[in-house]
Amino acid sequence: MTTTPARLLHHRAEGPASAPPLLLGPSLGTSTALWDQVAPELSAAHRVVRWDLPGHGGSAPGLIGPGAGIADLGVLVLALADSLSLERFSYAGVSLGGAVGLWLAVHHPERVDRLAVVCSSAHFGDPGPWRERAALVRAEGLGRVAESAAGRWFTPGFTEPRLLDDLLGTDPSAYAACCDALADCDLRPGLSEVRAPTLVVAGREDPATPPAHAREIADGIPGAALTELPRASHLAPAERPEAVREALRAHFAPRERGSGTAVRREVLGDAHVNRAQARTTEFTAPFQDFISRYAWGEIWTDPTLSRRERSLITLTALVAHGHHDELAMHVRAAVRNGLSPREIGAALLQTGVYCGVPAANSAFAVAERVLAELDGPAQAPDRDGVQPD
Ligand SMILES: O=C(O)CCC(=O)CC(=O)O
């Protein structure tokens, strides 16, 4: 067990220190042990950091109090990541731990590389039963909640005594504060803002966060994937560890930067890349290869900046140097990367200050033409001259 300062969440780290970091969050009433059959395998390719909720496992109960919210837990996870110098990380969490991951992806997108939300919800239903459970636990401790836990956590006939023991060892006041957070949790409005590639995993027999909750998350997050696990209830990492392991391993597999062609196609479009490839000659092939590997395989593939941010930088640099053919191509790319004409106009206006009014003047003319073409009745041909990238 790692010795953790009482102001931080208790955590357990495994895997090479230089591997891409992956944080694993628990569900209510459980500890890092929830990931016992999943984390060791994931740690072959990741620096895996499992954390405990306040008052659960090894975390101090006083880290949250009555009326806590998901944001309070999210801030604690960020403090833990900061203490480990993890500026950016991938994240998987079960139930309450999954909701914390959603909160992080909505409110701190710069920190979350990839996200997996397992047996969780963006809104854990009517707050009434959570408030009643909090009141019961504050009054009587965890005994009655523990008696019925197996029925909510596992399919009939399956059990995991270690997890039930952990529940009984949880601090009642911290457990109740987590129930407060679940009662007030509503992350649905932010789902469309999540940009981290997201996998949603549901246990088909989960009565606590049924598959409909997972579908709501997957439908709300652009591009999210959904996996439903048969023969799994709420604590799928304990009940179906091999299936959860495989889903997470594939989702978090370190990305091949490779040739960069896939990213180039996503940003510049198939039509452009096909044309550039068709035009390639023996003379230009080394340059094509260089561009694909470095510009697209290294720089545009690096997740530290979003594609929108990279588009803004690229537009500015092209204006500064007066590369108008490339500017036209990258205005199209900027639109593909999610920038609105208004945002593109604001970036060009700023170049008027830093690159000079004549440079911005020409850039506005180029961008206006391209945006009008994109807006036109038929998509205008991709007029990108002889530019090879
Ligand atoms: O223990 C339960 O009754 C399920 C609790 C729940 O849905 C929230 C969580 O597991 O984090």
Description:
This protein has two domains: 11-252, Alpha/Beta hydrolase fold, catalytic domain (Rossmann fold), CATH 3.40.50; 260-374, AhpD-like. It is built from 18 helices and seven strands. It has helices spanning 39-42, 70-83, 96-107, 127-140, 143-147, 149-153, 161-168, 172-184, 211-220, 236-239, 241-252, 261-268, 270-279, 285-299, 307-321, 324-336, 341-354, 357-375; strands at residues 11-14, 21-25, 47-51, 89-94, 112-118, 198-203, 225-229. The longest helix has 19 residues, at 357-375. β4, α3 and β5 form a beta-alpha-beta unit. The chain is of the alpha/beta class and 389 residues long. The chain binds the ligand O=C(O)CCC(=O)CC(=O)O. Ligand L4CXMVQC binds at residues 27-29, 95-96, 149, 152, 182, 208-209, 234. Residues 287-368 form the Carboxymuconolactone decarboxylase-like domain. InterPro entries: 4CMD/NDH-1_regulator, AB_hydrolase_1, AB_hydrolase_fold, AhpD-like, CMD-like, Decarb_PcaC, PcaD/CatD. Its EC number is 3.1.1.24.
